[in-house]
Amino acid sequence: MNIEEKTIEEIAQDILSLYRQKNYVEIKKQFEEINPTDIAEIFEEFPREQSTLLFRLLPKEEAADTFVELDSETQEAIIRAFSDTELREVIDELYLDDTVDIIEEMPASIVKRILKNTDGQTRASINTLLKYPEDSAGSIMTPEFVDLKEDSTVEDAFKRIRRTGVDKETIYTCYVTDNSRHLMGVTTVKELLLHDYDDQIKDIIETNVIYVNTHDDKEEAAKLFGKYDFLALPVVDMENRLVGIITVDDAIDVLEEENTEDIHKMNAIVRTTEKPYLKIGVMETWKSRIPWLMVLMISATFTGLIITAFEDKLSALIILTSFIPMPMGTGGNCGGQASTTIIRALSLDEVDFDDIFKILWKEIRVGFVCGVSLAAVNFVKILLIDKLLLGTEGITLQVDLVISLTLLVETIFAKAVGCILPIVAKKLKFDPAVMASPFITTITDAISLLIYFWLATAILHI
Amino acid sequence: MNIEEKTIEEIAQDILSLYRQKNYVEIKKQFEEINPTDIAEIFEEFPREQSTLLFRLLPKEEAADTFVELDSETQEAIIRAFSDTELREVIDELYLDDTVDIIEEMPASIVKRILKNTDGQTRASINTLLKYPEDSAGSIMTPEFVDLKEDSTVEDAFKRIRRTGVDKETIYTCYVTDNSRHLMGVTTVKELLLHDYDDQIKDIIETNVIYVNTHDDKEEAAKLFGKYDFLALPVVDMENRLVGIITVDDAIDVLEEENTEDIHKMNAIVRTTEKPYLKIGVMETWKSRIPWLMVLMISATFTGLIITAFEDKLSALIILTSFIPMPMGTGGNCGGQASTTIIRALSLDEVDFDDIFKILWKEIRVGFVCGVSLAAVNFVKILLIDKLLLGTEGITLQVDLVISLTLLVETIFAKAVGCILPIVAKKLKFDPAVMASPFITTITDAISLLIYFWLATAILHI
């Protein structure tokens, strides 16, 4: 099956019409052929009050996998309709980290019911996981992993994996700990498969293990997957005991989520929820957008002040007013390009604070060549288009020179400001992503205007 | 080992001083304890002409893994210094897709030497892989995967994995094909381990396989990993024959690369290279930034024209000039927020063209509440700060009303334009990421000015 959006929607339509005909047997048969992720998408096309009935048509082995993929409102509706036995059946099949993710979205009454229907040990694990801070590595780990004994053989290891592996999210990375649960080493099922059955685990394991702490940032943990090509990453607690692992699928989710957050921040949006666009209400959207709009609107008071200060000169030569937006826009774009590039390079660990002078020097040179190109093209464009073609009044060679020189000088300034601010922000432990276009533009607007008016005063003697 | 940037740099310093003391034995010992990815970072601290000597100090089993992680200039330098035997040793250890990635960056003479030192079959595979278009799924796949026979048992499967697995990048997903190499089903080592040795493969395999075609977009392929939590994804050719697999580590790289490209595009940068920031020269940076700067600068001619058209009114009431930048900036920010949100939602497949009216209706309502908030705060702010505190001349209640109403109306327009353009762009097969802040701002600038001047004409009777 080659998955295309179209296909899923078509299948959903088929199942909807089977549902209307009450042909549940056929729905059951179809569900067996569909990936749980896609079944969850099909659920979205159904009215929520029918999701429990639909859920009961799922083959047992797909029920839990599908449940995890549903949106939390549908999960809640299904749990409410569940008997305790049904609830226990699904919870038993879930991996612990998924159970915790679900619990975090549920109202207190549902949480209580879920906890009531888990055994004591699971409940304790859930409570521990719930306590990790939201952005921590601990919050995305699962405590279920394969642990092997140092003094066992490859054959023992396979026996152990066969016995305990069914409940683990991944079995491909196996961990060896000592009696106080300190991490001694790791190995992989691939390594095990390439060794003889009577080889000793202690001769196979890699003892230089890269790990993270439960309280490390989950984004930093996720980045290690891209860097080292891991399938799983061990997580230790404050006493250096192995308490869980992060799996690559969760790392991908974190990376995508952090990318979304960065992209939003870089465009003056405060991210308040991880919900998809269409599920976010108007007021919640307003809440995420209004803070920066307000800050940026009020800080634009400065540009107003600058123009007011030069009001006399503007009324002396009214043509200067027409050209206010263009250099301001260009300054914003130049600064935005520089800050974007640096914010992304910081986030990919390509540059750090020590590179600040190297970066500044490069951006100044880039600003110079960009500025010269823009100024040259603009100089000709104003003469040909604005003066000759459009016949705009008041354009002289001197006016043209003021505007073109403004472009050259402001471009260098904008590139410099744009590259410096994110690096400094990171050094001061602020999020560099905030130092992107909208914020940089407010600064370059003021700089551009000042350069413009100063050059006008100097060259046009007004 | 808990990896921190600091640690790697410190280790690099240690190794540098060992190198100066010619204590190669100790370097060898240290290298054994370090992950190949980190060794590659240490290489970056060394002068390039010494990298071959350093490379020869690597333990055999880490040499190829380290080689893959080096930058292409260092790889080239090392290959040039290699004897044919040394070259063959490294190439033999590389996975085919990595060999192809390396070859793509090398000059023709080196490519010839590499191909001369591979056997006929490998050479044929390399040549096939090199032919896939740059952005295709085929270009990131590896032809080395574990294939199982349908009529064999779990025990046979393990024997086969043990015999052939050493050369495969991943062994955890296994594929069953028929005699004409059509994909029949997949299974995982986890499934195999949880079944009895004498179970039949054909009873275990999942026959509803999600796959991609060699010519599908690699980004679309990579997204499937996030959606379905795959470790590997099969790739079929035009005749539906299984020709390779994509592994999750390569999918993560593609996702991060595509995110970087999107972020750059959204800020008017044309991405011309995948090199890290500090390795890109000034002129190459210029080339990636100047196209959009030029386009946006020239299109700002329109805003100039609008101001020119209203010149008389501006000279009649000069205070209006001071307030030109603020509504323009706010319009750009509002439009940028909307376009960013939609571009990201499109890229995450959260919305598509069919949602256009739902999205527009939501953005208009968001625009209304944002606009009302901004207008109200601005109305009070102009009276309190600009008029009372700063004593700016010429501010009347009517002028304040014009500016505040402009904010309200333009915010709604900006949100509408900002959300519509990316969706339409995608429908017309353009990249929606281009419809971000810089482009939207150029449009909202013109819209904001028109609204401003019209309201001024209507309310102030100028």
What does this entry look like structurally?
2 copies of one chain form a homodimer. With 462 residues, the first copy, chain A, is mainly alpha-helical. Chain A has helices at residues 5-20, 24-32, 36-44, 51-55, 60-69, 72-81, 84-93, 96-105, 108-116, 120-130, 154-164, 189-194, 201-204, 218-228, 248-265, 282-299, 301-309, 311-316, 319-322, 325-347, 356-389, 397-427, 437-460, and strands at residues 146-148, 173-177, 183-188, 212-213, 232-236, 242-247. In chain A, the strands form 2 sheets. The first copy, chain A, has a 3-stranded mixed β-sheet with strand order 1-2-3. In chain A, strands 4-5-6 form a 3-stranded mixed β-sheet. In chain A, β4, α14 (218-228) and β5 form a beta-alpha-beta unit. The longest helix of chain A is centred in the C-terminal third of the chain and has 34 residues, at 356-389. Chain A is elongated, with a radius of gyration of 30 Å. At the A-B interface, α11, α12, β4, α14 and α15 of A face α11, α12, β4, α14 and α15 of B.
Record keyword descriptors for this entry.
homodimer; 462 residues; mainly alpha; 3-stranded mixed β-sheet; 6% strand
Strands, helices and their partners?
The structure is a homodimer of 462-residue chains.
Chain A: H1 5-20, H2 24-32, H3 36-44, H4 51-55, H5 60-69, H6 72-81, H7 84-93, H8 96-105, H9 108-116, H10 120-130, E1 146-148, H11 154-164, E2 173-177, E3 183-188, H12 189-194, H13 201-204, E4 212-213, H14 218-228, E5 232-236, E6 242-247, H15 248-265, H16 282-299, H17 301-309, H18 311-316, H19 319-322, H20 325-347, H21 356-389, H22 397-427, H23 437-460
Parallel strand pairs in A: 1-2, 4-5
Antiparallel strand pairs in A: 2-3, 5-6
